[in-house]
Design a protein that fits this description.
Strand content: 35-45%
Number of domains: 2
Helix content: under 10%
Largest sheet: 7 strands, parallel
Mean pLDDT: 73
Low-confidence stretches: 377-394, 400-418, 426-442, 450-467, 472-490, 497-514, 519-540, 542-576
Shape: globular
Strand order of the largest sheet: 26-28-30-32-34-36-38
Distance between the termini: 51 Å
Number of helices: 2
């Protein structure tokens, strides 16, 4: 069963625009729409790209200021309906924002569970630290990660002040708050954050801080072993103090140099320049770390500039893949947007990269995360191997439990005379497809319980002489359609209990068919004469309770059982 659902999209702020909004919809038809998650404690949204921000403004003239390029999520707590991204300037060109919505859809208290404790957009006004609102419900502070999901700086920031609005974060357990630290306190701005608690037993979280001491020199920090770097990712944040340092100062690289070490690199450094890295590992996760370069085209190419990277994910689609660890640096430049790259998962094996301007040599890194799935031992998790059911007379009686239970393949029911007795319980149980009941004289007696039990398809009962004995219990059990009973001389003996599905007239329409329902007390469906339209049909239900609406005059039926034979359109009643 998949434990996560990831949604990918993008939206553009147009020329002269200050904001853009994406909306939750019933069916996604464009990249600026998404499906609402189940709850705010189940999901969050983040910008995917270098500096957790936009791909940069496309215009050239004075496009480089942070106010024109930096984007924040204004209302992260509104994720169930809509999200608005905004910048602080309307005086320049368009930019694109790539986003990801991460939703935990696994079992409560599962080994891969994440609880999304808090989201907030916070204004900062020249102080060294800023605090979030109080965060409730935290069970283990050592498993907290504070993500930067977007940030914007005041429009009066200079072209080279790419560090304006940049903060690193920590969780202060004594007061249950997230605290951000900035070194450049001369500029105002806004930052959006998400506080996640990786509560599942498979997760390990570390927070590592590094202060740069030398330019253009690889520096390292030791970490607790993640055992295997293909089972770990990180989220990196940076801060620095210089007012006039361009992207060559604010840009940086971080990577796993081993399972016990992180490496750091910045082309230029200044006082207070630091990076905080939140390292997250899980033995059931798969992570591929990618690095690359994009050459300076000196304005000779086409803006915006886009290209792809490939990866080796084994995922079937993009709904379980995310981007983390985005970082980059560029040549010396004054313009903030010349370090920006937007990053988006395009397919299970292709990542799209997008920059607004094709100028500047970019060196970049990011990680492709394939989220873990619960690998427990329940029947919903274990494959059922066809060779187990390969001999005549084998009894196969699985219990298929809630959740994304495994498909039962056609070869499972391949032997003549086989007994197939599954119990299909509530929730997202798998559909039982026609080929599963493909042998002559097979016994098919499923129990379909309350909830969204799977539909029983017509071709399930396609073999002459087959015995079909379902038990359909209360709740939203599937309708049993006429085509289910289409074989001559078939025995159809369902047990239909309270609130069971209606039995349609066409269910009994073949000559010499045997129809032996057992209808028990409660709100069982009415049985009308049209149910028995053919001659020589044997209709012998067992009846308990006042349920026979087609014989209202017979008061004794309210307290007594009856045997019925309907032959040649004549009803014979025998009381017990």
């Amino acid at each position: 069963m998949a434990d996560f659902r990831i949604q990918h999209g993008y939206v553009d702020i147009p020329f002269g625009g200050i904001s853009a909004t994406i909306n939750a919809v019933g069916t996604v038809t464009s990249p600026d729409e998404y499906l609402a998650p189940a709850g705010l404690d189940k999901a969050d949204i983040k910008i995917t790209g270098i500096e957790h921000n936009s791909s940069g403004v496309e215009d050239n003239d004075f496009a480089g200021t942070p106010g024109r390029n930096n984007v924040v999520i204004d209302n992260p707590g509104n994720l169930l309906t809509s999200i608005t991204f905004s910048r602080n300037s309307t005086s320049n060109g368009p930019l694109r924002i790539f986003f990801e919505i991460t939703e935990y859809i696994g079992a409560a208290a599962g080994p891969n569970e994440i609880i999304f404790r808090h989201v907030e957009s916070i204004a900062h006004t020249g102080t060294t630290t800023i605090d979030s609102s109080v965060i409730s419900g935290v069970a283990d502070a050592s498993k907290i990660v504070v993500l930067t999901t977007g940030h914007k700086a005041a429009d009066n920031s200079g072209r080279s002040e790419s560090g304006a609005g940049r903060l690193t974060w920590e969780f202060v357990s004594a007061s249950n708050i997230a605290r951000g630290t900035q070194d450049n306190t001369t500029r105002n701005g806004d930052v959006s954050i998400s506080v996640r608690e990786y509560t599942g037993s498979n997760w390990t979280v570390q927070r590592v801080e590094h202060s740069f001491t030398a330019a253009a020199t690889t520096e390292t920090e030791s970490i607790a072993s993640v055992v295997d770097i293909t089972k770990a990712f990180f989220h990196a944040q940076s801060r620095y103090s210089q007012n006039n340092g361009g992207p060559d100062y604010s840009g940086f690289e971080v990577w796993f140099s081993s399972a016990t070490e992180l490496s750091f690199l910045s082309n230029e450094i200044n006082t207070g320049q630091a990076v905080v890295v939140w390292v997250v590992s899980n033995p059931d996760m798969s992570v591929e770390h990618i690095s690359g370069t994009r050459a300076d085209n000196a304005g000779g190419g086409t803006d915006p500039d886009s290209w792809t990277e490939t990866h080796s994910s084994a995922e079937a689609d993009v709904s379980t893949i995310s981007i983390y660890g985005e970082c980059a640096h560029t040549d010396k430049t004054n313009d903030v947007h010349l370090n920006r790259i937007g990053i988006q998962v395009s397919s299970p094996t292709v990542i799209n990269l997008y920059r607004s301007r094709d100028e500047g040599n970019r060196t970049y890194r990011f990680s492709v995360v394939s989220w873990p799935e619960d690998s427990g031992s329940g029947p919903e998790d274990q494959p059922i191997d066809p060779p187990f059911i390969a001999q005549v007379g084998t009894v196969f009686s699985p219990t298929v439990s809630p959740g994304d239970a495994p498909a039962i393949s056609p070869l499972l029911i391949a032997a003549s005379g086989q007994v197939f007795n599954p119990t299909v319980s509530p929730d997202d149980a798998p559909a039982i497809s026609p080929a599963r009941i493909e042998s002559v004289s097979s016994v098919y007696a499923p129990t379909l319980t309350a909830g969204e039990a799977p539909a029983i398809q017509p071709d399930l009962i396609a073999a002459t002489g087959q015995i079909f004995q379902p038990t359909v219990s209360p709740g939203d059990a599937p309708v049993i359609s006429p085509a289910l009973i289409e074989a001559v001389e078939m025995v159809f003996a369902p047990t239909i209990s309270a609130s069971g599905p209606s039995i349609e007239p066409g269910l009994i329409f073949s000559n010499t068919q045997v129809y032996q329902p057992n209808i028990i007390r409660g709100d069982a469906p009415a049985i009308v004469p049209a149910l028995i339209p053919s001659s020589e049909v044997v209709f012998t239900p067992g009846i308990n309770g006042a349920v026979l609406s087609y014989m209202p005059a017979d008061a004794e039926l309210a307290t007594r059982s009856v045997s019925l034979v309907w032959e040649n359109r004549t009803l014979t009643k025998t009381y017990s």
